[in-house]
């Protein structure tokens, strides 16, 4: 349902809903969460994220869709999701939780009318309050409010209510609340390089560092092209780790995974710490053949290597073939032992094949990195002198996972991310971004664009002139 503010109050009055409680439900208010904690938790101290006013994290919270998911503290430490009832404003505990689609976890509450609160996506924010018996869907704090998203969440709750698991709960007299169930971290359902490390893996790190006991947690994950939970956290032994064959398996409520009652948590980190970067480097180095590592290291010690991220399937730089060639030729005139490493997905091979011969003709060494395994790519990213990358997964690897200084370009829609990009990785080197006025092309989210390669010449000369850059 979509209501103007006046209609919202009228609807609440008609259906005996507490409009103030619903407004309070809309987002994670730390003061409300502290009061609920004090009233319902046996634990004395509320775990607080200490964030300095002018810190990188405060900048991220101002300029991105990320917010601190306060409700996860109660889930992680008390096994409870407690909210103020939309009917009377009194504290009420969820009696069950279930992943209801590949984006959200649904928490079910038994009240005057049963209601569900959906949380999730990469930012973990509260997405919707759904009261099926009133045919009511209130969109809450999450920024995704498209009609298709509303319909998807409504259908997810309908499917959940039809499941054997839900029916067994529904037929149990005096249903227990969520407490004393197995706390279960859920990661990797939607494959996205940036959010996997920024939110999910950093979220695991955040939960543990706030004092939660990891042996109390199960974890459910999906395979990916990057690093597994075990590779990143080799010292952590969770109570149990279940590996799904594919993301959709999470919705099979008849599987063994649901034989045990669970509290589902999609962990959300706030930034990528230096500790996380060290974990990533160690996992990649340990997983790489020693000969390959030595080749990468020695190649980058002998040459000033520029990492060039190529992209063809969407949001592509129209002039990237001629732009990369001319930029590289000009850099070679100023940078001794200049070389190029060509990075990109497999569909970028035709671009690389067009660029490499032109550079080799100018006696510029070219190293192919198209569709390389992740661990090998990270080692190259760590050792090159600088980079030119597209805002997106290519730039994530260079600037967040490795923290290298370089330059970045993107279409008009993605350039907006520069507001928070340099703040995501703790103590990171700075990325130089194109200005919006320097870009021409589509304003669509994944539209193509163009710019003058000469814009990056001076900053790259400055960055690559110092071979003793921070590694």
Entry keywords:
5-stranded antiparallel beta sheet; 2 domains; 471 residues; 6-stranded parallel beta sheet; Rossmann fold; elongated; 18 helices; 18% strand; alpha/beta; 19 strands
* Number of beta-strand segments: 19
Average pLDDT taken over every residue: 90
Amino-to-carboxy terminus distance: 52 Å
Tally of contiguous helical segments: 18
Classify the helix fraction into a percent range: 25-40%
**Approximate strand percentage:** 15-25%
Assembly state: single chain
- Across the major sheet, the strand order is 14-13-12-15-16-17
Number of domains: 2
| Biggest sheet record | 6 strands, parallel
The stretches of 5 or more residues where confidence is low (pLDDT under 50) are none
SS class: alpha/beta
What would you note in describing this structure?
- This protein is α/β, with parallel strands linked by helices and 471 residues long.
- It folds into 2 domains: 5-271, no CATH class; 276-464, Glycogen Phosphorylase B (Rossmann fold, 3-Layer(aba) Sandwich), CATH 3.40.50.
- It contains 18 helices and 19 strands.
- The protein has helices spanning 5-14, 19-25, 30-40, 56-63, 71-78, 147-162, 164-170, 193-209, 229-232, 274-286, 290-302, 320-332, 349-361, 374-383, 393-401, 412-415, 418-424, 457-464, and strands at 82-84, 91-93, 96-99, 104-109, 115-120, 125-131, 136-139, 182-186, 217-221, 240-243, 262-265, 304-309, 338-344, 365-370, 386-390, 406-409, 431-433, 440-441, 449-450.
- The strands form 5 sheets. A 6-stranded parallel β-sheet has the order 14-13-12-15-16-17, sandwiched between helices.
- Helix 8 packs parallel to helix 15 (393-401) and helix 10 crosses helix 14.
- The longest helix has 17 residues, at 193-209.
- The protein is elongated.
């Amino acid at each position: 349902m979509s209501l103007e503010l006046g209609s919202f109050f009228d609807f609440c009055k008609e259906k005996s809903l507490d409009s103030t409680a619903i407004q309070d439900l809309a987002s994670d208010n730390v003061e409300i969460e502290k009061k609920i904690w004090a009233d319902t938790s046996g634990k004395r101290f509320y775990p607080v994220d200490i964030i300095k006013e002018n810190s990188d994290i405060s900048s991220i919270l101002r300029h991105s869709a990320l917010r601190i998911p306060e409700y996860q503290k109660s889930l992680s430490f008390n096994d409870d999701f407690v909210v103020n009832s939309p009917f009377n404003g009194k504290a009420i505990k969820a009696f069950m939780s279930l992943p209801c689609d590949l984006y959200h976890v649904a928490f079910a509450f038994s009240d005057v009318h049963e209601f569900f609160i959906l949380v999730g996506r990469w930012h973990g924010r509260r997405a919707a309050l759904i009261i099926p018996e009133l045919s009511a869907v209130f969109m809450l704090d999450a920024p995704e409010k498209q009609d298709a998203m509303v319909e998807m969440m409504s259908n997810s709750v309908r499917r959940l209510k039809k499941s054997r698991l839900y029916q067994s709960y529904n037929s149990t007299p005096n249903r227990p609340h969520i407490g004393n169930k197995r706390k279960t971290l859920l990661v990797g359902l939607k494959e996205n390089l940036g959010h996997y490390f920024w939110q999910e893996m950093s979220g695991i790190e955040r939960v543990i560092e706030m004092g939660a006991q990891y042996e109390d947690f199960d974890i459910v994950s999906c395979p990916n092209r990057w690093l597994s939970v075990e590779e990143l956290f080799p010292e952590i032994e969770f109570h149990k780790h279940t590996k799904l064959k594919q993301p959709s398996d999470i919705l099979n409520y008849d599987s063994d995974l649901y034989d045990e009652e669970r509290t589902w948590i999609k962990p959300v980190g706030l930034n990528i710490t230096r500790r996380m970067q060290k974990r990533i480097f160690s996992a990649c180095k340990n997983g790489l053949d020693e000969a390959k590592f030595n080749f990468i290291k020695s190649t980058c010690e002998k040459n000033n290597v520029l990492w060039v991220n190529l992209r063809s399937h969407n949001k592509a730089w129209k002039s990237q073939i001629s732009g990369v060639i001319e930029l590289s030729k000009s850099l070679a005139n100023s940078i001794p032992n200049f070389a190029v490493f060509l990075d990109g997905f497999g569909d970028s091979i035709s671009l690389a094949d067009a660029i490499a011969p032109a550079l080799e003709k100018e006696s510029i060494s070219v190293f192919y990195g198209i569709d390389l395994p992740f661990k090998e790519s990270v080692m190259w990213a760590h050792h090159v002198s600088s980079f030119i990358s597209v805002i997106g997964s290519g730039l994530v690897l260079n600037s967040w996972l490795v923290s290298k200084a370089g330059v970045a370009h993107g279409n008009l829609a993605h350039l907006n991310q520069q507001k928070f990009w340099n703040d995501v990785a703790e103590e990171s080197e700075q990325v130089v971004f194109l200005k919006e006025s320097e870009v021409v092309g589509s304003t669509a989210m994944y539209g193509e664009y163009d710019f003058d390669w000469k814009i990056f010449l001076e900053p790259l000369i400055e960055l690559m002139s110092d071979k003793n850059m921070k590694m």
